[in-house]
Amino acid sequence: MACNKPQKKSIIAVIVLVSSILIASCKQHKEPQNVEEISTKTSVQIIKDLPSGIAIPEGMVWIPGGEFTQGTTTNDTLAMMHEHPAHPVSVDGFFMDVKEVTNAQFKKFVDATNYVTVAEREIVWEEMQKQLPPDTPKPHDSILKPGSLVFKKAKESVPNLYDYSQWWEWKIGANWKQPLGPGSSIEGKDTYPVVHIAYEDAVAYCNWAGRRLPTEAEWEYASRGKDKNTIFFWGNDRKDLKKRANTWEGEFPTQNIKTDGFENKAPVGSYPSNSFELYDMAGNVWEWTQDWYNVNYYNQLKKQGQIHNPKGAEKPYNPNNPALQEKVIKGGSFLCNVTYCASYRNSARMATSLDSSMEHLGFRTVLSLDMNKTTKHD
To answer: In whole angstroms, what is the distance from residue 119 CA to residue 357 CA?
Structure first.
């Protein structure tokens, strides 16, 4: 494919089921709509240091508050239009999981609550129909069964990297316990990131653990580490990628030469951390944030000057998928390649519908000072 910018990969299972594949786009969007109005503060006191007497929860690290420029850096030739314009932001300090939530951690939550993930639930056609174009025919009952999206290698070179139906497969029975579908399992993979997690699933875990999902601004601020102006969390040299992150090395989606050591997911923490001691902030699996995806949001923030603790757009808006409610995901995954979805960059962002669950989508949690200081589920 000629376009060397990362491609949008948000796919919802319901649309895959009826063979209506969403098409990725590198276009710039101009029409303003549904953006949260945020007042600009002339003076704000940023919580930087951890207050005395507050312990750091196990498995987390304190991210000191500060200021940064959110969005693409001037020297990033791979940036998409929705990473523009860069805009000044400040965030208060917060706790963040050092690593992505693992299979073992999620199992502990499920065992305690009997929670059933979106990918495991029976499909109700009447509810699904509301998300589809009018007059969409009902698929055969043999297809309307619980499942999720699983990656499959292409057998030969793919000239059109916009059509991701060529490497994504709707797999009945795929879920967090069976990540590759029936017959697969997570046995022996306690330290791997949990995947096939829809937004609702991630929020349910957070509520149980006394945590929350990060805002997009918090996630990017934490990913950048102490040096806020680099393309990658380790600097600007892409040659270090294979030593720093689990991504796709080789021709996508036909051959992964595994110079980084893994073809698929890797155990969390398999690569060096960033300067805030956070692991896998690039590659491995995408991570949910709590922000709505709105293509006009960055433009609105730019006009308002520096914003403190932005919470994202008030409503979602994506002209490519106007019927969907989408959240921002960050960090890229093991499928990211320089020719397709180079989203191992700090500013990279993608839109994913609330009910999407995929083999390369997980999450990590955060804890702010205004929440409970300790939890019994760590």
So the answer is: 7
Model confidence over 317-368: pLDDT tens digits?
A: 999 888 889 999 999 999 999 988 899 999 999 999 999 999 999 999 999 9
Tokens, residue 200? 């609702």
**In the chain, what percentage of residues exceed pLDDT 70?**
85
CA distances in angstroms from 239 to 74, 170, 269, 315, listed in the order given? 19, 34, 20, 38
Q: What distance lies between CA 13 and its chain's CA centroid?
A: 17
Beta carbons within 10 angstroms of residue 48's beta carbon: 14
Nearest to 369 by CA among 14, 19, 63: 63
Tens digit of each residue's pLDDT (9 = 90 or more) over 63-76: 999 999 999 999 99
Q: 141-160 in b/e burial notation, b at 16+ Cβ within 10 A?
A: eeebebbbbbbeeeeeebee
Helix, strand or coil for residue 192?
A: coil
Predicted TM-score (pTM) of the model is 0.87
Question: Do the bridges between strand 60-63 and strand 350-353 make them parallel or antiparallel, or are there none, so unpaired?
Answer: unpaired
CA pair distance 246, 285, nearest whole angstrom: 9
Residue with tokens 């969007």: 29
